[in-house]
Structures are given as C-alpha cells and as structure tokens.
Design goal:
The chain is an alpha/beta fold. It has a domain of about 240 residues: 3-Layer(aba) Sandwich (Rossmann fold). Strands 3, 8, 12, 13, 14, 15, 16 and 17 form an 8-stranded mixed sheet that branches. It has a 6-stranded antiparallel sheet with strand order 2-1-4-5-6-7, covered by helices on one side. Strand 9 and strand 10 form a beta hairpin. Helix 7 runs antiparallel to helix 13 and helix 14 packs across helix 15. It is globular. The relative contact order is 0.14. Keywords: Coiled coil. Belongs to the SMC family. SbcC subfamily. This is Nuclease SbcCD subunit C.
Amino acid sequence: MKLLKLTLDNFRVFYGTQKLDLEVSQDKPAVLIFGMNGAGKTTLLNAFTWALYGTFSDDVERQERVINDHAWAETPFGGAVSASVKLEFEHEGLHFTVHRAVTTTKNADEQSAVTPKLTVTESEHGASTTVRNGQDRIQKILPEGLRQFFFFNGERMERMFTGDRTDEVQQAIKTLMGLEEIERAIDTHLPAASRKLSRQVGSNGDGRLQALTAEQDRLEQQKIEVHKELLRLSENAAGYEREVEAANKALLANGKAAPLQRQRAKLKFRLDELVAKRIERQERKRDLLAKNSFLAFTGGIDSTVLDLAEGMRKRRELPAGIQRDYIDGLLEDGLCMCGRDLPEGSEARTALEERRYNAGLADVEGRWMYLRGKTADLTLARADLLAKLRECVSDIEDIEASIKQIDAERSDIARELEGVDEMDVQRLEERRKEFDRKRLDALQQHREAQTQLTELDEQIEKVRRQFHSARVQDEESKRIQRQVLLVDEVLDAFQRILAVKTEEVRQQLDAKVKSVFGRICIRPFTPSLTASFALELVNHSAGVAAARSTGENQILGLSFVGAVSELTKETYDRKQKATDAVLGGGGVYPVVMDAPFGNLDVAYQNDIAESLPKLTSQIVTLLSKSQSRGMVLEHLGQAASRMYVLRSYTTNTDADEDSITIHDREFPYVSHGEFNHTVLEEVTA
C-alpha cells in the first residue's frame, strides 16, 4: 500500500480544499508536516482513518462536527453543506481512490451526526470501475484492526501493549500475517462441518449420539450468546471511558476545578504506569512458574542422588563403559580372546579379574563428575528461581501498596471536587464518577464472560470426546461417527499448526523488536515479546524487569511498529517469490504518525529521528515546532521527499503571529485571519 494523495474539503479545522501530495522516492521515504498544537495534526491523522474506515480515534472531541465550523456558519438555513476526504493510493499494481463524504441540510446552529457515503474506485491501465462493497475491499487491503500499527499518535502508542490490549495486538498480528484464515477454519468452518455431520444421525440412529449432538448444539448456542455479550460489554466499556474522558476535560477547563483535576490527571498517569508494571511482574512470575516450577519439587532429591551416587562410585558400581562389559563376557565364557581356557584359580583368570576391577575407573570418575555438576546446577537453578520469585512477589506487593496510596489520594481529590462551591463542577464530578463506576462494572462483567467462554469451550471439548468414544451398533451411526472424528482430527491439526505458526511469528517479531530497539535505546535494556504478545523490558545487567519510563515506553512502541513493518514486508516478498501454502499475509504498508517524540529528551529524539525513515518504505510524520529543531530536523529533512506546514489562521489579534524556520528559511506558522481555520502549505525549495 503506497499513499499518493490526500484531499480534504471543509473537513473539520480545514476550510475549503486542501491537498497533500504523498508520493515519495525510495531514498527519501518521508513526508514531514509541521503544525502547532491545535492546528489540526490530530485531525489530519484522523483524515486518513476516517476516509478508510469512517471512524475517529477516541481522543477526537465532538466527532459529529465533521464539517468545518466556518463552512457550516456561512451556510444559510435550508442550504446544503458538505465535507469530504479523498485518499488515493496504490496497492499491488492497482490505483484506488477512496472518497468518503457527508452531505446534509442545515436546519440548526449545531451540527448533528450524519452517516457518511463511501465511494471506492479501482483503476488499472487507465480503466476505472466503482468497487461494490467498497468497505469490504478496504478491509481486505488493510483490516481496521491493523490501523493501530500504521496510523497512530506516538504519545499514546504504548497503551496498545498493556492490560487487555495484548489480546487485540495478538489478533491483529495474526490478521497481518495471514493466520486468521487458519483461525477462521478452526473457529467457524470445521466446527460447522462437524455439527452438520453430527446432525445426520436420524431419529432411527443411535440415541447416545443424538443426545450428545443435542448437548453440543446447546453449548454452541450458549457460546454464541456469550460472544455477543462480550462485544456488547466491550462497546459499553469503551463508551463509558469516552464519557469519563469528556468529564475530565470539562473539569480541566473549569477554573475552580482545574488545579485538582491536573493533580488527578498526574495521579492517573502514575496509576496507569503502576498497573502496567504490575501486569509485567505478574506475567514474569507466571512465565517463571510455567518454565521452571518443576524445580520446586526437586528439593532434597539432588542430595539423595549425590549420596547414592557417591556410594556407587566407591563400590565402582556406576556404569563404566564397554571395556568392563567385554571382560565380564570373557570370564562368563571361561575363554580368553586368544582362545586359551580360563579355569577357576588359573593365573590367566586371576590377571583378567584384576584387569576387570580396574577397568573403567576413569570412566566412573568422569560420570561421577558429570552427575555431581548437573546436580549442583539443579540446586543453583532452584535457588535462582526462588530468588526471582521472591523479587517478583516483593515488587508486586510494593506496586500494590503504591496503587493503594494513589487510590486514596484520588479519593481525596474526588471529595474535594464534590465540595467545590460550583454546581457545574459538582455535576461534572458526579457524572465522571457515575460513568467510571459503569466502566469498571462493564470490565468486571467482561472478565466473567471470558471465564464463562473458557468453561463452555471445555464442556464442548468433553462432549466431542464422548461422541468419538461412544459405542454404537448400527452401521450408519458408525459411519457418521468416523466422519466426525476425521473432521475433528483435522481441526486438532489446524489448531497445532496455528499454535506453531503463531509462535514462529512471535519469535521473528521478538528478534526484530530487539534489533530495532537496540538501534535506538542507549540504556542496558532488552525488549521481550511474551507468549501472550505483551511487551516487556528487561534490564539485562540485572536480569530483572526494567522500570520503564514514559520515553522508554514510546521507544518500545516505535520499535514494535518498526518490527511489524519489517516482518510484513519480508513475508510479502517471500510470498511473491514462492507460494506458501500455510503462511500468507504480509504486505508493504505506510506509517502515518503524530507526535513521534512525545516526552523524549533530546538525545532520544535525535536517535529516533535518524531511525524513523528506516522503519518502512513510506512514513508521514506530523511534528510540532518544538519537536523539529537541530539534529531532529536535519535527520528527517535529509529523508524527506516533501514537507508541509499547517498554517493556522486565528481571529485573536492579541495572539502573536509566528513563523517556523526550515532549512534556513522562514515559513508562516500562525497568522491573523477573518475566521479560525487551517490551510496546508507546501515547503518549496
């Protein structure tokens, strides 16, 4: 997927028609866009995803206001007014134009939500056709679940790797690598085939099979209902979260509530960090137990083995190799290897018996040293496991104590806000508390539904096994039973294939994350992608999980995005050369990102600025003036095919006009105007 052009028409803060040429060269893969806070960088980022999927990110306020405010204001009542975004791109040799627009009649001062219209056009060799089911076509090119890897805000990207989001990341990676086809066969097609065969047991068939089929149908129906409930709870939780954020922003905008709200925001940020760290420590503890818990049951066994082995060594009873076995054979046969008889008491037999006694002593000693060394390793490994588990438990206890303290401070702030002598503040705080309570309830119900889903899967598997092993008499029922068993064996094989391929992708991605992270981060940390696709950061000098800063979280996120881009491109290139019957997927995708540097210090900004153009074959970066100075601008400027400035026009004449310096030239950045809006202006040589 190669972006070509973005055209905005009265889209939110952008008035009139604004065009963004996105074509880049191979040696200069970057497009740089500079804009002040509030100029429309987040809007521009969302223009891409709104064109493709018709949705905005959660941080976009007043999402119903798609049409530019000035365009809306100058439209008379009863007049038609519209806004649109057109995105042109190439994909696998085809040229696509995606046009999404809203058109409405103005009947009120405020805008209301309007359903947008999507038109997708596909062109090849100069011939264009309108694509039926355009949204489905877009989904096949870049599924919406993958947008988080290619269109994102750098300051918020670390959230995708914490808490419940790891499941989303894992599923998105499967989709990206083509594994969802195997998963679809496992979740839908093969179970459907198995059920269809099972239902062929007619009324005259085996009663046991009929009962088991009915029971599985009942459980499958329950599973469908639980899936629906999970989706509903997820949507509810997300909606409640948006309401909480809206109340938080309103409190922050209130003069009396703002100081307390800022304090609460800081506590919330710290709380999120602590929760993420607790999840990391808990994951590390589970990983330690999963891989090494057997060591806990070896206490005492090692010393017993050593005592037994020492006795055997002294008695020369440890295996001593082929030499002693050979002499035993000669003595038993009573015949020397030269053919001479070996009668009891003879000089020859006595000499051979002495030789047998000393035979293999070096071998005995060698085996003894090996056994003692391995047993000592076992003792050390058990001690190391205990020390690491104690450290994890101690860290978790410390984190939970800190969380408890922060919760107490947040409760104090809530009480103070409730006591503020202003009705708006009290109402906002009550609203915030109400939706936060609903959000937590929805998340708890979601966890309970997940547990119920797991239990249903276990019950369905139990019924499947009973169906396979049931004793049946009539031949028709036996035939159906064999066919169901065959389909279920294929299902089991697909599940093993999916597990192997998922682990293979995880290992490849883990190696690439380490590689990209190592090129950016100067601290002695190593990232690790766990079996559950959660990102951890390990302090390899201490061998423990690192306490991640906000900046390191951002570097970790960027490293992951870079690794995903590299892996998908390699998979795509491999697929073009030779068809892989099992692993499909892959692709070449652009990256569009806002605020790539977030809260990073200058050293990290320079390192990332140097690394960003290497992440993918096309990268569109949105920067503020403060993020584009010195070496940052030099690194990015050298890799840029095109540069633009988001020029902000303001009606506030008290505000100073401003400019931005790019390659020793001044370009307008903030200007006075008749109404508030933003225009795109290309930086020319």
